[in-house]
Design goal:
Organism: Tepidicaulis marinus
Structural class: mainly beta
Helix content: under 10%
Number of helices: 3
Strand order of the largest sheet: 8-7-6-5-3-10
Shape: rod-shaped
Radius of gyration: 52 Å
Distance between the termini: 26 Å
Keywords: Signal
Protein name: Secreted protein
Length: about 700
């Protein structure tokens, strides 16, 4: 009897050509009446021990279904799959994808399941024992139909063969039969004559499954990207056919991110709509499946932020021509993280305050040349909090006062030798009915009197409020050429107007305005004289900062999405100060910069068991009946076999742990082969790792060879 091979290679199951999925026929009175309650809710049992140290071939059988569907023949059906660690983060720590069926002991090729099944479970040891129950998910009734369809293809036993098959009608020599090779079957085994070996064709055809050249298919309705794979047909190791890409059972969840998307401002709606896009991560790379579009939250509504006007950060716009002070406001919005973004700079609103004038804080300016004094006043307004705000500094008002001379408050200067009398008086003005003297004693009638700065250099009376400095002089006369001073240095009618030279700015970043810093000086008789130190002129209105732009400023923080590294910024409003420098105001998180690839790549290597090679040193190339895993008798060995039932390659798997073997006939040799594998390791910026599939490196090599002695 020829055994058809199904080889587990590089994490994939390889079938001979022709073992493809087909539509299983409907079988009346059998699987159509099957319900999940009759099969222990979709549970099968492992047919062989399953190591859980890495990807491995897994087999299971329908033991609990045989009495209800298919009869004893169903016990020979094996479901074949690939076991590997579960990387989905859901279910158990280990998963199996069941993809094919085979009938043990039958000359039938394995066939693909029409609908692959999946198992997720937590292993109870490093090697799960044969018979261990595991759950299955998927279209399980269809898998039973596929199994029944395979059993229909088995050759029907002839009636005259009943005696040869034994009382129960089953082939005692079949690997899936009644097991007559155990106790009570030694005589038959001793007299067994193996059938003539039928040489298999030299040409080897196999099918492999790969992801290469296939891109995941996006299903927005399911919210996933479905990994695509294709089948490659190999004839003697050379590719002869390649199928189209189709869905596999692996699903990648679609995720939503705002990275790379902005906020769309709709001024006419008074809203700012948040935008986002969808992506999935496959093999360490992010793939975006949608453009940036309005983001819909869990309620199904667009996520938007209300536009509001804020006046606190804007200066008041004043107009002396219209005698008004107008409130200005910025248009901004706050997102769902309370981050502030400026949409429009400070602009006038409809809220205004009237501008009035007051003399508080202002003085009377005196013009001694014209004998006229002028009352000064300043413009003010009162804001909505009742606080008085200054609009401009003190300036001349229409109110004036004529100067007069009061001779009754000063003594006349008398020079008896010269016989000169100089009458002196003080100038005054009348304000609200009360006289106010505005000068010292001044000569009224000058008799050869001369005014001089000599001896009064550097002496002034400075009136900062009026913007004037009064120059000090003293008076003398020179009878017979001898100078005689009549007064000490005092204020006279001569003045020097104040000049301002701006030397800088006093910035108030909190108020987003600045006041000019100026040096007050006069051009005195002896030249320039500074009046005090440079200072802010309180009569000047603050000069507002000018909004320039919104910009994202790096803040030194980073965020990771897969391999992508995004540098975080603060969304900032930038204003230009009057001195030309810039003031930056952070309003919240800005758009990240990037992405850049933050992943590093390395590889891991391992050595795994490949297969066990049997060969004989006898010229007849036969080992007849032999076993592995014991040294007493093949019947006692956990593995026993007939030489002629071995594959033509003499290679089998599952014997890695056996170091002893025995044969009833000619000496055999058991050789375990291992192989080296490697896989790519992707280190993500957040410290996590992703692993690629294991790939074979080179050919299998000998790990150990054991000689099997002959026993009788």
């Amino acid at each position: 009897m020829r055994m058809l091979k199904a080889i587990f290679f590089a994490g994939m199951l390889i079938f001979p050509l022709g073992a493809t999925a087909q539509e299983a026929p409907k079988l009346p009175g059998s699987v159509q009446d099957y319900s999940t309650e009759t099969v222990d809710n979709g549970e099968v049992r492992l047919a062989d021990n399953l190591p859980v140290e890495g990807p491995a071939r897994a087999t299971s059988f329908f033991q609990d279904i045989a009495d209800g569907v298919g009869g004893q023949a169903m016990k020979r059906v094996r479901m074949i799959g690939t076991a590997q660690p579960n990387r989905t983060g859901q279910g158990g720590a280990w998963s199996v994808e069941w993809t094919a069926l085979m009938v043990e002991g039958a000359d039938l090729p394995p066939e693909r399941l029409r609908f692959p099944l999946s198992t997720q479970f937590d292993p109870n040891a490093n090697e799960v024992q044969k018979g261990y129950p595991v759950p299955v998910a998927g279209k399980f009734p269809e898998a039973i139909e596929d199994a029944m369809a395979m059993l229909e293809k088995l050759p029907k036993p002839e009636e005259d063969d009943e005696g040869e098959d034994g009382e129960d009608g089953q082939d005692g020599d079949s690997l899936g039969g009644s097991g007559k090779t155990g106790e009570g079957g030694n005589d038959q085994l001793a007299n067994f004559q193996p059938p003539e070996v039928v040489k298999e064709p030299e040409q080897q055809t196999s099918v492999t499954e790969t992801f290469e050249g296939c891109e995941p298919r996006v299903s927005e309705t399911e919210g996933v990207a479905i990994v695509q794979g294709r089948l490659i047909t190999l004839v003697d190791g050379v590719e002869s056919e390649r199928s189209e890409c189709s869905d596999t059972s692996q699903r990648l969840p679609l995720k939503t991110t705002r990275e790379g998307c902005s906020v769309a401002v709709a001024r006419e709606e008074g809203r700012a709509y948040q935008e986002a896009r969808k992506y999935y991560t496959w093999q360490g790379n992010n793939t975006f499946v949608t453009d940036c579009e309005r983001y819909v939250d869990v309620t199904g509504e667009y996520l938007f932020y209300q536009l509001v006007e804020e006046k606190n950060a804007c200066p008041i716009l004043t107009s002396l021509e219209q005698l008004s002070a107008t409130v200005q406001a910025e248009t901004v919005y706050y997102d769902d993280r309370e981050r502030r973004t400026v949409v429009a700079p400070c602009l006038p609103t409809e809220e205004t305050f009237p501008v009035t004038f007051t003399t508080d804080g202002c003085s009377i300016r005196h013009d001694f040349d014209d004998d006229l004094s002028t009352q000064q006043h300043r413009a003010i307004y009162t804001d909505d909090e009742g606080v008085e705000r200054n609009v401009a500094g003190c300036v001349d008002s229409p109110t004036t006062y004529a100067m007069q001379m009061d001779y009754g408050v000063c003594e006349d200067a008398y020079n008896a030798e010269q016989g000169v009398v100089i009458r002196q008086g003080r100038k005054f003005i009348t304000v609200n009915g009360s006289p106010q003297h505005i000068s010292g004693c001044l000569p009224g009638v000058e008799l050869g009197v001369t005014k001089t700065r000599m001896g009064c250099e550097g002496q002034f009376d400075h009136d900062l409020a009026a913007g004037l400095s009064y120059i000090h002089h003293r008076f003398f006369y020179e009878p017979d050429g001898v100078r005689s001073y009549l007064t000490s240095c005092e204020r006279t009618g001569e003045t020097a107007g104040h000049n301002l030279e701006q030397v800088g700015w006093e910035n108030d970043d909190a108020a987003r305005s600045a006041l000019p810093v100026a040096q007050t000086y006069i051009d005195g008789p002896e030249g320039r004289v500074n009046v005090g130190s440079p200072a802010v002129n309180e009569n000047e209105s603050p000069v507002p900062y000018v909004f320039v732009r919104n910009a994202d400023v790096l803040n030194g923080q980073e965020e990771y999405v897969g391999c992508n590294v995004y540098k975080l910024t603060d969304r900032s409003s930038i204003y230009r100060r009057p001195d030309g420098s810039e003031a930056i105001y952070a309003n919240g998180a800005g758009a990240s910069q990037g992405p850049t690839n933050g992943c590093t790549y390395s590889s891991e290597n391992r050595t795994i068991y490949a297969y066990t090679q049997w060969d004989s040193e006898d010229s007849r190339q036969r080992g007849y009946y032999f076993g592995a895993g014991c040294s007493s008798h093949p019947n006692s060995c956990p593995y026993n076999q007939f030489w002629d039932y071995l594959p033509s390659s003499r290679q089998v798997t599952g014997l890695s742990s056996y170091s002893a073997c025995i044969t009833l006939s000619y000496a055999l040799r058991m050789t375990h082969f291992d192989r080296n594998q490697s896989r790519q390791v992707t280190q993500l910026p957040d410290g996590s790792k992703q692993y690629g599939a294991w790939t074979n490196q080179g050919s299998p090599f000998v790990r150990a060879t054991y000689f099997c002695p002959v026993v009788q």
